[in-house]
Amino acid sequence: MTQTDTKIRLLDAAESLFSQQGFTSASLRAITTAAQANLAAANYHFGGKEALLSAVLERRLLPLNQQRSDRIDQVLAAATTAGTRPEVEALIRAFIEPTFAFRRDKNGSSEFISIIGRAMTSADPLVRDLFLALVQPLFSQLHQALCQALPQLTPQLIFTRLFFTMGAMGHCICFPGMSQIFNGNSASNPEDDIFMTNNLIRFVTAGLEAPC
Amino acid sequence: MTQTDTKIRLLDAAESLFSQQGFTSASLRAITTAAQANLAAANYHFGGKEALLSAVLERRLLPLNQQRSDRIDQVLAAATTAGTRPEVEALIRAFIEPTFAFRRDKNGSSEFISIIGRAMTSADPLVRDLFLALVQPLFSQLHQALCQALPQLTPQLIFTRLFFTMGAMGHCICFPGMSQIFNGNSASNPEDDIFMTNNLIRFVTAGLEAPC
DNA sequence: GTCTATACGATGATAGAC
DNA sequence: GTCTATCATCGTATAGAC
Q1: Separation CA A111–CA A117 (nearest Å)
Q2: Residue B159 contacts A, CB cutoff 8 Å
Q3: pLDDT, tens digit, for every residue of A66-81?
């Protein structure tokens, strides 16, 4: 097996186990065993457990953030062309929809976003900062766009409400099978996820647009 | 020292360290050392690390839930007397305000609620269920009250939006010093907490009241 | 360069002496 | 009730095989 194979198998195994058991509880022994690699392979290829998490996060989050950033830019460009202000719901949809669509992808990354949901509120500052550094540019971009959409609100208030939005969203993505309970289904269903996504978008849009 | 003293000192030390480092990362050795007790004392008095967390949660959460439950009942009683429907904002305020007021109390429990913020989304089902079992009655009570306040919405949709509310709130209580950054203050300030609390109440009230 | 085997200190937990 | 001794397991580091 080549180096690339081992690295990818380690990333896949780590992603799955971090998602199921959490960062602290998932042991390097369990991860390397699942990846059919030696215990020391994780340290050799990534440098440590923390660096392995960082690689797991970057692999999925960088493309996802690019996708969300592009969609926000599209909304802004369309508003500029039309000579109007961008709509809050369109901006929020650009931010939230790709995140949940990730879960329905067939490329084996369905478990990933529960990791970032927990990294966001981790008690470990190293884990938290790992995530925050990766989303900070996107967060700033969205904040700036929302300031254009909501000129009657102060940037500070929009920042606060964006923080609440991150919380509501983070809670939803912590549990891969959560969306189905909203419909009382026993088995997971792509429609449950879409139902939850649309309701979340409506909820936070109303919260962001609330009068001051 | 009496048994009671040791138990309380263990609870205090566990509360502080669980809050600062998280449940998994806070070691029993650090907790018992901080409590000036033997390593085995935690196992003797509580039965294990998980049971210690359970005791930490119950000590603060049962009185807090009683307080929140009473305030919800007061809102419902006042509405009945006035012959009107209860207001969403009043119900949400009854639920959220005591939670954040907890943080400003001087009895050394200021660190506590960050524990429940993380227990809510813990990857460990045992930890999560510990918290869920403690708040389930209160959650049902609030859901039922909101169904009275929002008769135009289905109970299922209200449940979904209450889930988002828990997420936004849980995110806020994960970080003891988070509220101050909204005002750009360098030092923590009770007014920052009140500012954040009021903005959170306005945000989730607007989200809950959003048209279907 | 890649990978394996192995050792080290620290952890949660428990049994049994006192 | 309290404490010591002990065990399996954790993340990490390193020496050496291929």
Answers
A1: 11
A2: yes
A3: 999 999 999 999 999 9
